[in-house]
Amino acid sequence: MTAAQLALPPSGSRVTVAGLVLCRQRPGTAKGVIFLTLEDETGVANVVVWARTFERFRRAVIAGRCLRITGKLERDGDVVHVIADVIEDISALLDEIVGVLDLPEAWDPSQAGSARRTVGQAAVNQAPDER
Hints:
Number of domains: 2
Strand content: 35-45%
CATH architecture of the largest domain: Beta Barrel
Mean pLDDT: 82
Oligomer: single chain
Shape: globular
Radius of gyration: 21 Å
Number of helices: 3
Structural class: mainly beta
Number of strands: 7
Largest sheet: 5 strands, mixed, barrel
Strand order of the largest sheet: 1-2-3-5-4
Low-confidence stretches: 114-128
CATH superfamily of the largest domain: Nucleic acid-binding proteins
CATH class of the largest domain: Mainly Beta
């Protein structure tokens, strides 16, 4: 479900959201609770991670750049947040989206003697003697 769609289900519904981690907060006064803010293409989702859940998914919460969170939707007036039950680090999908593993070296236009060769949708340098 997108961040924008979180306004639709009733409080108490089980939902899954995913997005880039914008912010992690662990206030000293929150008794071990961690607050995450995730962003997708439609907006932001606020996530509450209780201490027990944090211990189960510690690595994902600390290191994840992109997370998928499943939990219970809670609504208090206009404030909507997800109480996390399951946290998955899906950061590896980011590399697939942008094709990081297949990205060529940057093309340098100052290399006048080089020919451009297309690999997928990206142009790379290739010296004339390498053709």
